[in-house]
Sequence to fold (1018 residues):
Amino acid sequence: MELAKRRGFLWPSFELYGGSSGFYDFGPLGTLLKNKIVEKWREHFVRREGSLEIDSPTLTPEEVFRASGHLEHFVDLMSECGKCGQPFKISELVREKTGLDVEGRPAEEVEALLREKGISCPECGGRLGRVFEFNTMFRTTIGPGGGKVGYLRPETAQGIFVNFRRLWRLGRERLPLPVAQIGKGYRNEISPRQGMIRLREFTMAELEVFFDPRNPAHPSFGKVAGERLRLWRAGEEMRGEERMVEMTAGEAVERGAVCHQLMAYYLALTKRFLLDVGIPEERLRFREQTPGQRAHYSRETWDAEVRTERFGWIEVAGIAYRTDYDLSRHSQASGEDLSVLLQQERRKEVCHVVEPSFGIDRIFYCVLEAAHLQGGGKLRFRKELSPVEVCVFPLLRRDGLPEKAGEVLELLKGRGFWAEYDEAGSIGRRYARADEVGTPYCVTVDHRTLSDGTVTIRERETARQVRVPLPELPRVLSSLLRDELRFEEAGPLLQEEEKGKEEEEGEEG
Amino acid sequence: MELAKRRGFLWPSFELYGGSSGFYDFGPLGTLLKNKIVEKWREHFVRREGSLEIDSPTLTPEEVFRASGHLEHFVDLMSECGKCGQPFKISELVREKTGLDVEGRPAEEVEALLREKGISCPECGGRLGRVFEFNTMFRTTIGPGGGKVGYLRPETAQGIFVNFRRLWRLGRERLPLPVAQIGKGYRNEISPRQGMIRLREFTMAELEVFFDPRNPAHPSFGKVAGERLRLWRAGEEMRGEERMVEMTAGEAVERGAVCHQLMAYYLALTKRFLLDVGIPEERLRFREQTPGQRAHYSRETWDAEVRTERFGWIEVAGIAYRTDYDLSRHSQASGEDLSVLLQQERRKEVCHVVEPSFGIDRIFYCVLEAAHLQGGGKLRFRKELSPVEVCVFPLLRRDGLPEKAGEVLELLKGRGFWAEYDEAGSIGRRYARADEVGTPYCVTVDHRTLSDGTVTIRERETARQVRVPLPELPRVLSSLLRDELRFEEAGPLLQEEEKGKEEEEGEEG
Fold:
């Protein structure tokens, strides 16, 4: 985290005014990385899948959350210390003190448990007050004076459900119909203390997949049926069996380990996406939520969990089977018929929904931690994910080399690369700076560039260098970044003595 | 707008519950288009300029807006009808009724004007009540119980200013230092009535350019000095001169029409960006704000205005000279010294700021309207901006053509294209559907594809067709989209009789 802060990946927000817990800023490198993670998600879950993506407001009128059940159910149990006034999220406190999971339990029961176990304020030892439900949506007023009550959405999903009829038509009245949304979500956490992991404002990427409940198949299941999944099944369903099992997506459906093919399809896709952004396979598992953990709308939910060094296993995505809960509730509340006519099946049906929902900030944290572990003190991303793709150096700060390097930089930026320029300090220090943030390639402009129009490319992983004619540079770099070209085939490799000579010259800075 | 709604570009939000004015949803094609506009902005103002981009929260503690002056100044004059209770934004009402601009005037003065001009409720004719200031930030509470007051940000800029010290270091302590942010902004409009033009939640793209007030030059000014600008100067500054003048950015600086080079640089860049997303040059001008119109922090502001058919001239960007207002205010409020040491100049200085600030939703509207005007009932975007880049058709729905077309679709999606598949109806209807939303290229898989591995590409503009071998398709399409290849050079052009034959076959659908 020191490196992440120092090099501008992220830091706690509003530090100038003492900070505000539950909020983080993404700095320049962090914004680049976060955008790349979002684009990867879009590639996996929207572009390749042919999903519809929409973009609806974060501020939402109260009616929507009354219908969705969030007004009633989006609550945490809290209590304040009678002595110091500190508020606590009680389920967290009980878990820390006793290991018990009280999520979803009634307030009176949990209050009795507090007394029984003698749990008091961890800050000052004072007696905790009454346990009550706190709705964790941020509330505001839309319009002046006695305007309408509105809330910041806790999930992007409702913006999709309220548009279902229109989306059904735009999706040409076919199922399954996947609709995506990427954007901010908000949760007024009682006392967020885990940095990036428990934020009050966060970026979500969600897919609502509408399907025929009598046919929960996915037309492309064959492509993922062989994908191996590590499943940690919910305790309540077990009868002496192992909790952790590993099987293919196909087997998971056959053996009934997951509820149906659509669920298994999205577990497999989730795995592929997480691996593609650089989460190591051995740190990934799917954990089934217990009935107490599940949200009010869900019949079966699998959390994708990543094992981190700092926080242990953390949930980065939830794949929830929401049944027809949402469409039925909105149908009741609005008086609109939200069932559809399935032409081929010749029947009307209220669609069911599977929802893969991703916490981009948590994935960001995991990607950053994984890059740090991979890089041994430095950062090592999957090449495509590297915030800066290429760094351009003039060997020396004279002889027209900075000007020529400036031209190379313009060339690369013009072709869509995220490129940086660095002329400060010796060439060795510049390589080290680029290496530290995982920049996979450095291009150096030297005296030969002026005479024969070639530049050197240095590969971060091996410190090998090749010489490439300038006009070919964009194409070569783009093939290298996509692993479509091996480095040694990119151009003639420089010998050690040539590299030595360059570095010696460059040491003058 | 009928076309935009029908084909899923955008629609008013929450219609299922009667709607909520000031909020719009972007549908699937709208989201694609909006994302492309944002990426173009990022290309022009971040990647090519080497700006730092950050991403800070929308929910902001009260201290920040007390320091920035928004608590005091981010207000509109409002009044409610004494009879029907309808709230009105008074400056709008007065402008509509009298043509007068009362923005920035004291409430008592405006109330007197209402009485004098006999302005009453335009809905019911009732007498309007007292005129008072209404703060148009959305307010909420962060944390449980007596938590902290927070507001949804009305601009992304403050998230940059509060991080200035860190950004100065990350930008290597050099000026000018451009820092960007793209994200949601919010304004609790009193009674938004202009659709997309006056939203309560919107997407902004802002750049805060920190510079040395004693040296307001831009190192790359030479690149834009010849860019012609149409300037509409503020009335107050005029002494018998023409209001509307046209001159180059260089001349604008020399003649003092704009305050300094940095301002002129960003006016020119703004023009280039707007043209690049498809705004016609003749519909663009820069209008200087009068002192009354200017925000509390600004010394000189130029609005980029686009002439629309529906709303007349509308502001799509503001380029404001914010002076040292923000850094000085935050310095006072936080007690931190936000001045910097300029190494070369050997002096300390509080940086000044020029802020180009863009309303992405308004630009979206203008791009859509321009595409509609260009397309004569259909949409015609700049090719790169087209939401769908290529549509893939099987000529017939049999003989293995749909399966082969499915493979072509996968190939294109895998290479990063936004591609769609359509097999419904005759080939002519499918071309028409793709044409309507501006899809520049259609690829058809026919019987020859199965025998010799070629497909046809049809160009929307001319309805000409060429045949291209499948392996070359991605490269050819990508060159065509970027205008790096002329259509007639993409492959052998199909003769009219060949096209006729294909279409005849395809009519069977």
User: Anything to note?
Assistant: The domain at 2-71+137-374 of chain B is CATH 3.30.930.10 (BirA Bifunctional Protein; domain 2). The mean pLDDT of chain B is 93. Chain B touches chain A through 78 residues (CB under 8 Å).
